[in-house]
Design brief:
By secondary structure, the chain is an alpha/beta fold. The protein has helices at about 5-15, 20-30, 35-45, 60-70, 80-90, 125-135, 150-160, 180-185, 205-210, and strands at about 30, 50-55, 75-80, 95, 110-115, 135-145, 185-200, 230-245. The structure holds S-adenosylmethionine.
């Protein structure tokens, strides 16, 4: 089983925000190509929601931005006590909750954001039903994930470490490949925005920090060789914009 679906491993990973922050900042500062975070923010601006829920809010950057930039009423929900604490500190309403059982009334929000969280549940269909339930009939869900196809990424790591590519990881519960079908069970319309990009690491020091922040690579940073050129790491992410919950 993938660590992504192991509740104890997930709780341990998100006990602290430090590794997540390193990964999020690397993405924000080093991405070249279409950027899923920009897609999500642009969609939120266009939707101008009055009440926004972010589930799996992590660092709560998006919640803080939505509240400040749009004056939106924002609620953050996360299963990690530390992430809930971060959202509270950022000045938004924050609640410890599981995406499969949300403590909100039906139809309450007009926008729900769930980025890189649905792959943490074995039964994403239950979670999606719950997200549709709390959404207003004219509301929309923005859900990001990654592609099942990690071959170019595994090859890039193999080239860096001068070894054979690692085997493909276990299948994701919610991915670029199955997300649309899962969402169509609870939403009438699903748009898929694929973002194939690269993280470009300018120097070894930045790459070492990133490697040590990747869950399955912790401790490998010291093995990163000197770089002759910037290191390019492929990323295949997808944003699903689902509307008309049913
Ligand atoms: C990969 S991080 C993504 C954080 C943020 N959405 C982002 O895009 O940067 C996953 C987040 O989901 C939370 N999480 C994991 N499983 C969850 C669940 N079943 N219900 C609610 N939150 C969960 C974790 O604690 C963590 O904060």
């Amino acid at each position: 089983m993938s660590w992504l679906l192991d509740p104890d491993a997930v709780a341990a990973e998100y006990e602290s925000e430090l590794a997540l922050r390193e990964r999020v900042l690397a993405h924000r500062e080093l991405v070249e190509g279409p950027d899923d975070e920009t897609v999500v923010r642009t969609r939120i601006v266009a939707a101008r929601p009055r009440r926004l829920l972010e589930v799996g809010s992590g660092l709560a950057d998006l919640c803080a931005w939505a509240k400040a930039a749009l004056g939106t009423e924002v609620v953050a929900a996360d299963s990690s006590p530390r992430m809930v604490e971060l959202a509270s500190t950022a000045g938004v309403s924050a609640i410890l909750a599981d995406v499969r059982k949300l403590p909100f009334s039906d139809d309450w929000f007009d926008c729900v954001v769930a980025t890189f969280v649905l792959y943490h549940v074995e039964d994403p269909a239950t979670a999606i039903a719950e997200l549709a339930r709390v959404l207003h009939p004219r509301g929309s869900l923005l859900a990001s994930t990654v592609s099942e196809d990690s071959s170019t990424r595994r090859q890039a790591w193999a080239d860096l470490f001068d070894e054979q590519p690692q085997p493909a990881p276990p299948q994701l519960s919610f991915s670029r490949e199955n997300g649309r079908d899962l969402l169509l069970r609870h939403f009438s319309d699903v748009e898929q925005i694929d973002c194939d990009a690269e993280l470009v690491f300018p120097n070894r020091e930045r790459l070492v920090r990133y490697v040590d922040a990747v869950p399955r690579m912790k401790g490998l940073g010291r093995r990163v060789p000197a770089l002759k050129a910037p290191f390019r790491l492929p990323e295949k992410t997808t944003v699903f914009a689902a509307s008309f919950p049913r």
